[in-house]
Design goal:
Blueprint (H helix, E strand, L loop, with lengths): L5 E5 L8 H7 L5 E5 L11 H17 L4 E4 L2 H14 L5 E3 L2 H8 L6 E6 L1 H6 L1 H9 L4 E6 L3 H6 L6 H17 L4 E4 L8 H7 L4 E3 L1 H15 L12 E4 L4 H10 L6 E4 L9
This protein binds D-glutamic acid (DGL).
Amino acid sequence: MDNRPIGFFDSGLGGLTSIPYLKKQLPEERIIYFGDTARTPYGSKAESTIRTFSREISDFLVKNDVKMIVIACNTVTSICLDELRLRHPQVPIVGIIQPAVDEICSFENETNVGVIGTKVTVSSETYSKGIGACRKDIKVFEKACPAFVPLIEEGIIDNEIMDLTIDYYLKDFIRDENIDTLVLGCTHYPLIEKRITRKYPKLKIINPSELVVRKIESILRKSDQLALNSDFNSIFYASDLSENFVNMINTIFDKTDVRVEFKSFDLDVRA
Ligand code: DGL
């Protein structure tokens, strides 16, 4: 048993999309979450900038004595996973991409998989390479959709602007590549999943934010580190306490259960 919290981080509120699944599957676990809402989006930034931000956040989580770090961000996972594992060898670090790759590799039939994500995630080809390593018969097409994250961070979700943006990115992509399975390769995208499936009801959706929770459970179970009766209250840090961030936490939790705190870093991004 290990009652220390699990550390989660994302560029903003996207990583929060894993939390309801964690709460359901592992209700005893407590969390320290960091959303870099002041510096979001990461997905179109230079790799060196993302690396600097990620080092800083992972150091902060380790200082807070987390028992595991979950990189609840595809962008960071796609370029920083190995580096962060080397930096913090004493803490297991789970990336959000591999559990989704494993799920697709277990499919019985050939499929045409579309992966949507940020520019950085898509140009890293982490999904294509991962799936290609286990299944040559599955075709993978990746597409960057950089306008989704700023819209979602602004709370522009259930309306026509989002519908138009979905059409702009997905209409030709799904038709031309004959996509039957769509990976939400950015943790912000589960927040528009309903909007996507309303337009494309036949698509099979793969949600890494949900699948990563199984991985967390299996690692903690194996090392006998699942929590039991922890009296730690989960804390959600944000570098900008935006209304959307606070509202999202309030919809996931009963307000009395958790703390929401401001935390920012004073840093030189050229470091
Ligand atoms: N939610 C993140 C991801 O999964 C990053 C989005 C962004 O900041 O651009 O890629």
